[in-house]
Amino acid sequence: MILGVTGNIASGKSSVCRELARRGAPVVDADQLAREVVAPDSPVLEQLVAAFGEKILKADGSLDREYLGALVFSDPSARERLNAIIHPAIAALSVQRLQQLRDTAPLVIYEAPLLYEVGAETRVDKVLLVTIDPAVQLARLMERDGLDEQSARQRIAAQMPQDQKIARADYLVDNSASRAETIAQIEELWPLLMGELLNS
């Protein structure tokens, strides 16, 4: 079974995925795949340069993710151009990696921040959504990324609202409180996931 794990920015997806990995489930990370597809001299990076110009490159020829991120977060049409280039490449690579792992592991985790936004839920069997209280999310994002409030709110607004994702998810883990409380929810969820494996 492939379990998609998603959630909005600063919700704590990665910490939830680490807990699932600790219980034996291999994780495919869409953000890591995104870094791989834009490696120097890759076709995807060449397409990005054609779309956004040489200024998105660092001196060593690698992608300046911070610069490109700032560029697209404030410009919806630029974000659409970026997504149209990068997401098909991530999709192809994710299908390949997930299939390889599916052949060897009963439960595979696909950690994908934009699972719903890019239609990637078709690549998974079930979806676990990591939810977070909006005020906690804002504070964590500002602290984690060193952003001012306006920049943090822009990044949050760039994603699908959490309520819409809740309506579509199979499982929820609320990561608004302590790590111990989040782990307790994962411990409750784990037997349900194992039950799904027996029924699939």
UniProtKB/TrEMBL annotation:
Q: What is its EC number?
A: 2.7.1.24
The UniProt GO MF terms for this protein read: ATP binding; dephospho-CoA kinase activity
Q: Name one GO biological process term.
A: coenzyme A biosynthetic process
Q: Which domain of life is it from?
A: Bacteria
Instruction: Give the InterPro entries listed for this entry.
Output: Depp_CoAkinase (IPR001977), P-loop_NTPase (IPR027417)
Q: Which PROSITE patterns match?
A: DPCK
- According to its UniProt record, in which pathway does this protein act? Cofactor biosynthesis; coenzyme A biosynthesis; CoA from (R)-pantothenate: step 5/5
Annotated catalysed reactions: 3'-dephospho-CoA + ATP = ADP + CoA + H(+)
Compartments annotated for it: namely: Cytoplasm
Q: Which of this chain's residues are annotated to bind ATP?
A: 10-15
Q: Sorted alphabetically, which keywords does the UniProt record give?
A: ATP-binding, Coenzyme A biosynthesis, Cytoplasm, Kinase, Nucleotide-binding, Transferase
Record-level GO cellular component terms = cytoplasm
Relate the protein's function as given in its record: Catalyzes the phosphorylation of the 3'-hydroxyl group of dephosphocoenzyme A to form coenzyme A.
Q: Which NCBIfam families match?
A: dephospho-CoA kinase (TIGR00152)
Q: What is this protein called?
A: Dephospho-CoA kinase
Source organism phylogeny: Bacteria, Pseudomonadati, Thermodesulfobacteriota, Desulfuromonadia, Geobacterales
Gene name for this UniProt entry = coaE
